[in-house]
Write a structure and sequence with these properties.
mainly alpha; globular
Length: 72
Amino acid sequence: MAVGFPFNFHNLRHKFAIEYLKAGGGIYDLQKILDHASIKTTEGYLDYVDTTDGTKHGTGATVSHPAPGRKD
């Protein structure tokens, strides 16, 4: 059964990350889930997620969870 796109682990992981952020998941939580050493790697997924006000994450949108140890 064809799904219309290459189905592999990387694509599934990418889709999960985007859907997680769309559902309101925090960027720092996602970093831990994906086991990224740098938050910069995880922030790349923000380019694929629209915020509720029509802007893209990373262009003025706030992140739902502060970095571990930060008092925001």
